[in-house]
Amino acid sequence: MEALDPAAEWLRLSERYRQMSDSELLVLARQNSELTEVAQQTLAHEISQRRLRLQPEEPPASPNPEPPPDSSYAEDRELVEICTVWSLSDALQVQTLLDRAGIPFFMGPEKATGVDAVTSTFVNGVSVKIMRVGLPWAGPAMKNYTPANEPGPRLEVDSDPSVRCPKCHSTEVVFERLITEPTTATDNSSSKFEWTCDSCGYQWDDEGIVREE
Length: 213
Description:
Blueprint: H1 6-18, H2 22-29, H3 37-49, E1 79-85, H4 88-101, E2 106-107, E3 126-131, H5 135-142, E4 155-157, E5 173-182, E6 189-197, E7 203-206, E8 210-212
Antiparallel strand pairs: 1-3, 2-3, 4-5, 4-8, 5-6, 6-7
């Protein structure tokens, strides 16, 4: 392939750039890195001749700019807790209610904006927070919230040496909840207690003896 004559290429490009509008030249100048060396020099000469100035591009605006601490909006954007969820099903229920009301929410310390992004364990409870400005709408929406998994009152085992953790044999055992199971087709049912060992974290259920704290 025959090499282009730099002088001829300069004349050709000079004539082409002279026929372009100021705005077209400035747009082309932003794509300067894609041009040949001769084209870059010719374009720079034409822009200089017209005394045009290439303005730097403005960075894209942040979609959710944080207001300064002294802003009147800072208090409205403060996060406040509206509830704690203890299971995936309860978290999904809260998400549905808040989504229907158009209220943004944040779950757990990771501030997840959806249940699928929650990385915290529901066993220890996951906090649900919203911006303070959304509280007037959150109240009516949360009236329909019916949690299926709430932690029961914590009861402590009597200091009876026969009631111990089956795993580590510690007596530091805490009652979590009462489990009621039907035994027949009638109304008869049996109850068991669900325990957690504060020493090793082991969980089990039995018919242990408990007393309220």
